[in-house]
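Quick illustration, no need to memorize.
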Amino acid sequence: MLVFLQKVIDVILPPRCLLCGKIVADQNGLCQECFDKIKFISTPYCLKCGNPLPTGNSVQSCSLCVSDNKNPFRMQRSRVYYDDASRPLIVDFKFHDKTENAEFLTRWLLTAGHDIWQQGADILIPVPVHASRLRERKFNQAALLCKELSKLTQIQANYTVLQKTKKTKPQVECDSRTRVRNLKNAFSVNNIEELKDKRVVLIDDVMTTGSTLKECANVLLKAGVKSVDALTVARVIKNS
């Protein structure tokens, strides 16, 4: 019955591309033209941070990870480049109330997390937003992604154990020198016993410099988690 009703709805209101609005075959998808513009992250990539490596590269770690001994993550993974093709999908989702994009973007998260699922994960935690920001936006985009991903992976999600307790300036308004200082002491952990020896996966929409994810990871590690992975839909690609 539900399948029949969906077919009727699709005839009256046919599914449309999430980017350009063209009629497409399936709900919550892209037309072929828009899909072909998306730049996916594929091998080879750094096994630590997930940053793409030059084609044909046989090394397992990028130069940034080799020189960085303070990286708190077991792994960092993203599915697509954050560029002119993917940005509208995420901006519409995050700032223009197109929460229907969450289902589509979560499918990318699921694929991006392949290495993480193989190594094992115990709990999904969305990067939190401050209460004042949540009132303004009405939802936390990372929490919506986390909810959908929990359904697909059957991995428990926890939306309250990690909280943002300090209101900060948006990271996009900070330069590289002030991003870390802006987030200092911004996050805290509740119910530490729920995290002890857990393999945590932090969920967010985009990784730019990684400052927010790193601050969250450090707080979680201090709380006694076994490991922290970072999983985002998209990332700004750095030259390694």
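The chain has two domains: 1-33, 38-235.
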